[in-house]
Amino acid sequence: MKSTELNWQKQGHIFVPDGTLPWARSHAQVPLALPLNDDVLRIYYGTRDEQNRTRTSFIDVNPRQPQEINYIHPVPILELGSPGTFDDAGVMPSAVVNKDGLIYFFYVGWNVGHKIRYRTALGLAVSEDGGLTFKRVQEKPVLDRVAPDPLSTSCQSILIENGIWRSWYMSYTHWQMRGDVNEPFYHIKYAQSQDGINWLRENRICIDLKEGEGGIACPSVLKLGNQYIMWYSRRGSGDYRLNPDQSYRIGMAISDDGLEWQRRDAAAGIDISTAGWDANMIAYPDVTRNGDELRMLYNGNDFGRTGFGYAKAQLNNGKRK
User: What dotted CATH number matches 9-18+83-318?
Assistant: First the structure.
């Protein structure tokens, strides 16, 4: 397997809510790109209200210059679930798939916890109008907490290959007290499906925690030639909320089959800035390809409180096919 090194060039900040909307007081978290045509790139993001509940909306930008925002959607694409359902406290982006004229929006549903602060599971909604409005396919999750994932599932990346939906997703391993806070630990597993709704899980761990790590989060997987590349967020197990040395950074792994992975974090090619909106943390990468160029959307400080920006990288001067 050949190692892949990319030199990401940061292009700057794109968006953060101005706080005027009651359902979007803060954060633009886990940005996901959906190219609609040559003139419109839609970016979905999760945003929080005053009770810290997440909803999802989007902006439309110029694909050639994403900092040129042409439209800000004024309402959420999906409301919170009804009381008692898995998504009654949050609807956060996870993956978006454009297939056969439908937009499949996979999302993280949140519940508030008691002994632990929350639990999450993955849901699915579908749009028939180009991604403006969505309808849940069912009230229950499509990837819930069952063996081999007894605690929670969360953000995923999806590729469809030969009719098979392939998912790399977060699975929680345990919770542990760190000082006065019960903190979650999680890594990346694999599942596959015939329809995007019913998923087969065989407890296959793709990216596991190293010594001193507390979380591997929000994978983004591309297949470039015969090689799979995964970008993800990785953090320490210590005071990752306030200590920049423990906070999220972007890592990378490579694979020949999407199942067995080799970490290449040192070759990820992107890190925090020396100052500004992404100087303490970079997280939640979403990588898409446009010809011989890759584009990465990512969050900055405080888990997206400062919004998201983007970076670009060239694919070996256009030689990689």
Answer: 2.115.10.20
Alpha helices (H) along the chain: 301-304
Q: How far is CA 26 from CA 50, 268, 309, in A?
A: 8, 29, 16
Question: What is the distance between the alpha carbons of residues 258 and 227, in angstroms, rounded to a whole number?
Answer: 8
Among residues 97, 84, 78, 90, which one has the least CA distance to residue 120? 90
Are the beta carbons of 96 and 77 closer than 8 angstroms?
no
Closest CA to 217 of 187, 189, 177: 187
Q: Do 230 and 207 form a contact (C-beta atoms < 8 A)?
A: yes
Three-state DSSP class for residue 230: strand
Q: How far is CA 66 from the centre of its chain?
A: 18
State the Cα–Cα distance between residues 105 and 16, nearest whole angstrom: 21
Tens digits of per-residue pLDDT, 176-208?
998 888 999 999 999 999 999 999 999 999 999
266 phi and psi angles, rounded to 5 deg: -65, -20
CB-neighbour burial class of residue 283 (10 A; exposed 0-12, middle 13-18, buried 19+): buried
Length of the chain: 321
Taking all residues of the chain, what is their mean pLDDT, rounded to a whole number? 95
Beta bridge partners of 187: 171
Q: Torsion over CA of 297, 56, 307 and 279, rounded to 10 degrees?
A: -70
Predicted structure pTM score:
0.96
- How far apart are the C-alpha atoms of 36 and 6, rounded to whole Å? 26
- Give the residue extent of every domain in the chain: 9-18+83-318
Quick one: three-class SS letters along 28-87?
EEEEEEEEEECCEEEEEEEEECCCCCEEEEEEEEECCEEEEEEEECCCCCECCCCCCCCC
CA-to-CA distance for 2 and 301, rounded, in angstroms?
Answer: 33
Q: Is 160 left (phi over 0), alpha (psi -120 to 50) or beta?
A: beta
| Per-residue model confidence as pLDDT tens digits over 140-172 | 999 999 989 999 999 999 999 999 999 999 999
